[in-house]
Sequence to fold (336 residues):
Amino acid sequence: MSENSSCKKYAVFIAAIFFIFSFLFNAYAETIRVLILEESFNKIPEKNEYLEKIGEKQKGELLANGIHYKGDIEVWQGTNGLYVIAEIPFEDYVKDVVFAEVGSKWEVEALKAQAVVSRTYALYHKNANGKSLYHITSSVLHQVYKGDIFDPAIATAVEKTAGEVLTYEGKIIEAFYHSTCGGKTELPDEVFGKSFPFLKSVEPVCETSPYKLWDRRIPAAEIEKACNVQSIKDIIIKTFTSTGRVNELEIITETGKTTIKATELRRLLGWQRLPSTSFTISKENGSVFFEGKGYGHGVGLCQWSALEMAGKGMNYKDILAYFYPGTKIRIHEGHK
Fold:
């Protein structure tokens, strides 16, 4: 047998081993099941809703409103409509979420911090919903996922933190995060009704955020429709949270008074319509004028503060330790 022939057989053998390894890796690589929520598919299945799978799971791509969703695609018929679920390789999902949440132009250490937080958040919900039809949604109800988008800077940040998650006393944490805190983060019990030892109120800087300051003039009729009340005469701030955000508002109508949580008003009006609960209000010519700061619920990592910290030379581990004190970074067991 010639030396050249031996080399060719060796090369074929190596290629075969590589193919088998790649096949096994992809077959057993961790995935996450994402309920696609967007304009065409905008409902969440009710708790006891009857669901029936339509056809078989299809490996490929779903195009909806110009967004490409790749993975193993399932369509389910429910009592209230159709539901689409994409099962995606876990680390690919993390890359896509980081792109959707902050984009690729950020400091690399801020991208790494976001990668760890998004991975932690997703894995927490996967573990919590492991027996459910889906683990997480693609919307701001959880964290934003806008399909398959490759970006080299984000891919590098995710790969350099591959498998890393935040833990507290050995358990993966529910890593809340938001866009802009406005100078002080919120306590989780004020928003979610539960407290965590690793989530404290801190005072970072997020001066470069486009939501450093904002204002909204919202017609009273819009608020009446959203809150199911009529003839608003006035709206006043009733109570504040311990960090100074608005906790409750009192809506005064011709027939009485209604108390509503500021977080609920945000949900009813729309998260972007009322960017945060850190605001003042006044009533002007049939409208309510909101002046505020920040964007999001305010709990956990502030993305724009993380960007500024990275710009000042802080690494991602220090950034995460600041927002989640007492936590430790670990490689989770399912990582491959």
In short: The two ends are 40 Å apart (CA to CA).
